[in-house]
Amino acid sequence: MSVEAQIQRIKNNIASAYHKAAERGAALPEVRSSENLPAAIESIPAGGLPEDVHTIAVEASDPEGGSVSGGGVVSQGMDVAATVHAEPNTGYRFGGWQEDEIVVSSDTAYVFPITKSRHLVADFYVPQYILGGDWWETTLPMSSLWMNIVYGDGKFVAFANSSNQAAYSTDGISWETTTLPSSANWRTVAYGGGKFVALTYNNTNKAAYSADGIHWTATTLPASANWVDVAYGNGKFVAISYNNYYTIYSTDGEKWNKGSSLSISLWWSVAYGGGKFVAITNGKNKAAYSVDGISWTETTALPSFSEWRTLDYDGEKFIAISGGSSCEAICSADGISWTATTPPVSANWWGSCFGDGKLVLVTMDGSQAAYSTDGINWTEAALPASAKWRAVAYGGGKFVAVAFESNKAAYSSDKGPAL
User: Fold this and answer.
1) What pLDDT band is residue 59 in, cutting at 50, 70 and 90?
2) pLDDT tens-digit map of 171-182
3) Using an 8 Å Cβ cutoff, are 356 and 364 in contact?
């Protein structure tokens, strides 16, 4: 629909709103100008607006922290952007758009389909702690083999290996239980295109998908394999297998197809960035890249045969970290040519995640964590307890980590601990 048609539709809906309200005997406000129009429409008694006309109200949590714009009277089916602007000299940060005290978007420009009237609050705050550096403990609903965690659709979703157990949280602190379609060796998870997908390890073809991270539907993969990692980018989910040479892809998380096979095994991580998917091996010097997630090109460009455990894209480059006593770090701007860079302190690094300009690592042995804003200079941090910290995810202004063989979880926020 063109802008002109949308404007005309709103005008027609507004006229209809006044007409219907008048028929009900409502005391209608006077519309003196276009600036007065949204408030005038909002003051029409409940039930006076047509079904496809809604009001979008926006406000700042603290007027000193920043300003907001957007909203007003809108017509169902349009896209409306609510944009927040932070004052540069206040020292405040933007913590996301909230609705009923739940973060619904972390983007300063929030675009959403119009289905109802909404009241959005831009959360402005002064940072008191270090994101990725200060951590607090919380608990998962039960002790289990918590394997992975992802953020999407306004919530964290974690799942356990060798079971059908899963959990979700809108704040990374309070958790609720849910279940996957079957008990299996659930290994890897990703979110993209409005869907969560989870894949299994141990030579199976089981997978599952969910629109909300709570209700899951089983699906099957085109081959049985040790599906070790999955990533989303450019409208596709792409997964690699550890020892079966397979790659697969899906545009919806429901139906999967085989991509080109790789020539060797021991593939460990896959990530998307800079217009391509990149995969690396564990214990070999092989890497591979694909522009479409279907056809792959292999290289022997990794500087060493380390146990490369993590792979992330920080917006400019891919960064891989190895675990164990001989910790190494490498980076690549294009996923093809790799160079050694400064590693963090040696540890059994296992989980990693990039968010809010920081790459965060957690260890499987103890309480060590580390973070970096460039993948070169690292700062050590401490998790709140010693555990097998298996995975970490970022969303809603927090990093959240889960521990294997435990009910422990931890979160990091520059707002500080929940009161």
Assistant:
1) confident
2) 999 999 999 999
3) no
Determine the 3-state secondary structure of 14 from DSSP.
helix
Class of residue 389 by CB neighbours under 10 A (exposed 0-12, middle 13-18, buried 19+)? buried
Yes or no: say if 340 and 329 are a contact pair by the CB < 8 Å rule: yes
DSSP string covering 150-200, please? EEETTEEEEEETTEEEEEEESSSSS-EEEEEEEEE-EEEEEEETTEEEEEE
What is the DSSP pairing of strand 118-125 with strand 53-60?
parallel
Query: Does position 115 have pLDDT exceeding 90, yes or no?
Result: no
Tell me which residue has tokens 């010097």. Answer: 285
**Bridge partners, residue 332, by sequence:** 318
Give the tokens for residue 287: 């890497």
Q: Are strands 308-313 and 318-322 parallel, antiparallel or unpaired?
A: antiparallel
Residue 228: closest CA among 202, 252, 209, 210: 202
- C-alpha span between 315 and 251 (Å, rounded): 23
- pLDDT at residue 412 in the model: 98
Strands 247-250 and 236-241 come out as antiparallel
Indicate the residue type of 86.
Answer: A
pLDDT given for residue 53 in this prediction: 73
Q: What is the pLDDT of residues 359-368, one digit of tens each?
A: 999 999 999 9
d(C-alpha 319, C-alpha 340), whole Å: 10
Q: How far apart are CA 419 and CA 403, in angstroms?
A: 23
What are 309-358's pLDDT values in tens digits? 999 999 999 999 998 777 999 999 999 999 999 999 999 999 999 999 99
- Integer CA distances (angstroms), 362 to 29, 90, 133, 345, in order: 58, 33, 11, 12
Question: What's the CA gap between 29 and 39, in Å, rounded?
Answer: 9
Distance CA 120, CA 69 (A): 11
Contact status, residue 238 vs residue 248, Cβ threshold 8 Å: yes
d(CA 373, CA 375) in angstroms, rounded, equals 6
pLDDT score at 3: 42
